[in-house]
Amino acid sequence: MAFPAHLSYESISILYNEVRQGIKNGFLGPGSEPWEMTFALWAVIEGLIFIHKRGYLDMYGLKLRQIFERQLPLVVKGISGG
Fold first, then answer.
1. What is the domain partition of the chain in residue ranges?
2. Which of 26, 41, 45, 54 is the most buried (most CB within 10 A)?
3. What is the mean pLDDT of the chain?
């Protein structure tokens, strides 16, 4: 079953708006390119979902939510230059 394209677009649009807001508020560097940052973050999210769906996390007794919650602060720190 294919994932409806409009849902992907909506998800990426939400993330893009958050990135733009982060740049506007000074959380992300003023030189940050919004679409570039959006797709970098989306790649992290998609990567986690991909390895979860393949069952790789189960092999090691790991939980998708736990990894996401622990790693998201590191990703945010990295993109914010902190």
1. 31-82
2. 41
3. 85
Contact assessment for residue 48 and residue 39, using Cβ atoms and an 8 Å cutoff: no
d(CA 7, CA 50): 17
The 10s digit of each residue's pLDDT in 35-44 is 998 988 889 8
Q: How many residues appear in the chain?
A: 82
37 burial type by CB count under 10 A (0-12 exposed, 13-18 middle, 19+ buried):
buried
Largest separation between any pair of C-alpha atoms in the chain: 42
Distance of CA 35 to the CA centre of its chain: 12
Note the pTM of the prediction, 2 decimals. 0.72
